[in-house]
Write a structure and sequence with these properties.
- The complex is a heterodimer of chains A (about 475) and B (about 220).
- Chain A is an alpha+beta fold and about 475 residues long.
- Chain A has 3 domains: about 5-170, Beta-Lactamase; about 205-300, Orthogonal Bundle (Helix Hairpins); about 305-474, Histidine kinase-like ATPase, C-terminal domain (Heat Shock Protein 90).
- Helices cover about 45% and strands about 15% of the residues of chain A.
- Chain A has 9 helices and 14 strands.
- Chain A has a 5-stranded antiparallel β-sheet.
- In chain A, strand 13 and strand 14 form a beta hairpin.
- In chain A, helix 6 (about 270-300) packs parallel to helix 9 (about 415-425) and helix 8 (about 345-365) runs antiparallel to helix 9 (about 415-425).
- In chain A, about 25% of the residues are buried.
- Chain B has about 220 residues and is an alpha/beta fold.
- Helix content of chain B is about 40%, strand content about 25%.
- In chain B, the strands form 3 sheets. Chain B has a 5-stranded parallel β-sheet with strand order 2-1-3-4-5. A 4-stranded antiparallel β-sheet of chain B has the order 6-7-8-9, with helices on one face.
- Chain B has helices at about 10-20, 35-40, 60-70, 85-90, 105-115, 150-165, 170-180, 190-205, and strands spanning about 1-5, 25-30, 45-50, 75-80, 95-100, 125-130, 130-135, 140-145, 145-150, 170, 210-215, 215-220.
- The radius of gyration of chain B is 19 Å and the shape is elongated.
- Chain B contains 8 helices and 12 strands.
- Chain B folds into 2 domains: about 1-115, Response regulator (Rossmann fold, 3-Layer(aba) Sandwich), CATH 3.40.50.2300; about 125-220, Arc Repressor Mutant, subunit A.
- At the A-B interface, helix 5, helix 6, helix 7, strand 9 and helix 8 of A face helix 1, helix 4, strand 5 and strand 12 of B.
Chain lengths: ~475, ~220
């Protein structure tokens, strides 16, 4: 049995089978009906002719029968014409009158029957068919029998039967094809609500678990499936909600002990020792923070209507991590476009990506050098360091989770660039890495520029300063 | 000066209180939102250190209550959740500052003092960094205890940098601070004042450095 993936092809296939069977059977049935109708007409005609002959049968006063046919009838039954024949037989089966010269009986002797009887017989090469009518003449029972040679049948009737397939039979095929086309169209229309439901289903993702399939115009036969799917979504949404809650709880549960540890160390007093411990805690906090960022990235999908000011976000990042750079006797600078560069995306996620790029650059740039962050009008950010560069073969690897170029270094888990790539992928952007001819590495992150319809709507989103906690309504 | 710490983790609350005591602040501790509301209505605290993750209610609801009463009480929020969470945006509209756990006690004290020094707040008027002291009321600068004279504009630049020491002050904020809304400012005006300020600080032997974060702003820190 052929299995079709598409419901439409399955239905079309079954329809074609049904249509083909109908195309064969219907002409056969019609042909049979036509033939039986013709046969009925023939019988009626034969009986009428027999009745007509019976009217001409006379009894003489001596009891003998005479059959005086008018000229027109004589011609009809002449052997020269050959189409019709008659005879009259008595109860004993003797032929009293016959149109045939040899007086051979047309049909076998009759059994007693008050109703007309129809016969078929073969004579020489031809099939003869006719009717037999009983009559009482002067107390004597006779049968008047009329037959027609089917080889000489009426030309018009023959033509109808012969041409039936050519003219009538073939017309059924276009009609059936038209029916098939109509059915396909009807089916297509019937599945439109299903297609609409699939479109809705496409929007369902980890971050948009609130969408449900519309049940309004779904055919009753398919409704149970849609309802079951929606219920499955309810359970999934609950799962995602628990997951998100877990992320928030994990942040709290991990960060509070770290805060206790850090504060306890600070109260110890020994500055030299505490500084080393602080650095350890800082590294640990960073990894905890990054793990949570990854967890959030996995459950977050960007709202397509959201926009962010790339320039403001970069400015904010540089502002927040400059103390870190300066503490390591390194510098960070912001260049490129001065005004807003509005891109599609979530400002907070973009901020994380740029911060991770910048932190990475600060880590690898040599002491006394500057990390340059440049914003470009077409929605790109370039982050350039003056570090050792990345070997050609490792450029794709750096974006993998837990990958570290130098495994000796303990100051990172190799998560930063994987977060960058995660954010870029969620935003439909690109990230490339290249070595500068003058030494150092340049990361280029490009995002999709917002269409003018959206720009300006969320300008303030990217320009929040963590140092300035003013009401955002201003 | 009395502070209120609202933190459900007893251990952390006590450690913070101990650290604050060392910096000269005494603090009361409560562990849930209900107790916090009670404490806030009975005692007039100088500032509130508020953890957002409380067992009975969200810490943000306390903040909203305070701001709803138009109470100017300085609030420093501690949070374990930083990120896309809309809690942060809520927090940004009500708190004076926030710190993400784990934080340095030093940072906590510095931020606390910064919000206490804001206009109308209780802390003394002296801002200090290394061997430099600045009186926000008389606008006088002392280096190694000696009064030094700076021009009004340079003093103004020094003040805003000192108020946010250790953090980058965006150039735009410096401009707004010195010129207010008074018309056009020459694009390099701030650079000129910073250049002069740097030079004079060095001449007077201040152990202070003003870093330029090109494209963004300035940061003042101790010269180590």
């Amino acid at each position: 049995m052929i299995r079709f993936k598409s419901l439409t092809s399955r239905i079309v296939f079954l329809h074609i089978v049904a249509v083909a069977m109908t195309a064969i059977l219907m002409p056969l049935i019609l042909f049979w009906l036509l033939n039986s109708e013709i046969s009925d007409l023939h019988h009626t005609a034969m009986r009428q002719q027999a009745d007509e002959l019976a009217g001409e049968l006379q009894a003489a006063p001596d009891g003998t029968l005479t059959l005086a046919l008018p000229r027109s009838l004589k011609d009809q039954y002449s052997e020269a014409y050959g189409r019709y024949a008659y005879d009259v037989v008595d109860a004993a089966g003797r032929v009293l009158f016959s149109s045939r010269a040899d007086r051979a009986p047309i049909f076998p002797p009759e059994v007693s029957s008050s109703t007309p009887v129809f016969h078929d017989a073969t004579r020489k090469d031809s099939i003869i068919s006719g009717a037999s009518v009983r009559k009482e003449v002067n107390g004597q029972t006779v049968w008047i029998r009329v037959a027609e040679d089917l080889a000489h049948r009426d030309v018009i009737i023959d033509d109808i039967v012969a041409n039936f397939f050519r003219h009538v039979g073939w017309i059924t095929i276009p009609i059936l094809l038209l029916l098939l086309a109509t059915d396909i169209m009807i089916f297509r229309r019937a599945v439109v609500p299903l297609l609409r439901a699939s479109e809705e289903a496409e929007n369902i993702g980890p971050a948009r678990t609130d969408i449900r399939l519309p049940v309004g115009r779904i055919p009753r036969e398919i409704l149970p499936l849609v309802v079951a799917v929606n219920q499955a979504f309810d359970r999934l949404e609950e799962g995602f909600r628990v997951q998100r809650q877990f992320t928030a709880d994990a942040a709290h549960e991990l960060r509070t002990p770290l805060a206790i540890l850090r504060t306890r160390i600070e109260t110890l007093g020994d500055r030299a020792a505490t500084e080393v411990l602080h650095r350890d805690i800082e590294g640990m906090s960073r990894i905890v923070g990054q793990l949570l960022e990854i967890a959030e990235l996995d459950t977050l999908v960007v709202d397509p209507s959201e926009t962010a000011d790339l320039q403001a976000v970069c400015s904010e990042v540089v502002e927040s991590i400059a103390p870190l750079a300066l503490a390591g006797q390194k510098e960070i600078a912001l260049g490129g476009v001065d005004g807003p560069v509005i891109v599609n995306g979530n400002a907070e996620m973009i901020r994380r990506a740029i911060r991770n790029l910048a932190e990475n650059a600060i880590r690898y740039t040599r002491r006394g050098t500057t990390v340059e962050i440049a914003v470009e009008q077409q929605g790109c950010v370039r982050v350039t360091d003056q570090g050792p560069g990345i070997p050609e073969g490792e450029r794709e690897l750096v974006f993998q989770r837990f990958w570290r170029g130098d495994r000796q270094r303990a100051d990172g888990a190799g998560l930063g660039l994987s977060i960058v790539r995660g954010v870029v992928e969620d935003h439909g952007g690109t990230i490339t890495v290249e070595s500068r001819p003058t030494g150092g590495t340049q990361f280029t992150m490009c995002l999709v520029l917002a269409t003018s319809a959206f720009s300006g709507r969320n300008k303030a989103t990217g320009s929040r300063s963590p140092n300035h906690l003013q009401p955002t309504s201003s | 000066m009395r502070l209120l710490i609202v933190e459900d983790n007893v251990e952390l609350a006590e450690l913070v209180a101990k650290g604050l005591l060392a910096a000269g602040y005494s603090a009361d501790i409560v562990n849930n939102a209900g107790e916090a509301q009670g404490a806030l209505t009975t005692i007039n605290y100088a500032a509130l250190i508020l953890d957002l993750g409380l067992p009975d209610r969200d810490g943000l609801s306390i903040l909203r209550n305070i701001r709803h009463r138009k109470d100017p009480l300085p609030v420093l929020v501690l949070t374990a959740r930083d990120g896309v969470d809309d809690r942060v945006s809520g927090l940004r509209s009500g708190a004076d500052d926030y710190l993400v756990k784990p934080f340095a006690l030093e940072e906590l004290v510095a931020r606390l003092e910064a919000i206490l020094r804001r206009p109308g707040q209780l802390l003394g008027s002296s801002l200090r960094l290394a061997n430099l002291a600045y009186d926000t009321e008389s606008h006088q600068v002392f280096i190694d205890g000696e009064p030094r004279v700076f021009s009004a504009r340079e003093t103004s630049v020094l003040e805003i940098l000192l108020r946010r020491q250790g953090r980058v002050v965006p150039k735009k904020n410096v401009e707004d601070h010195i010129f207010g809304l008074a018309g056009d400012v020459a694009s390099n005006a701030v650079e000129v004042y910073v250049f002069r300020l740097r030079k004079q600080l060095a001449e007077h032997g201040a152990k202070i450095q003003i870093h330029t974060v090109r494209g963004v702003g300035y940061l003042i820190s101790e010269d180590k």
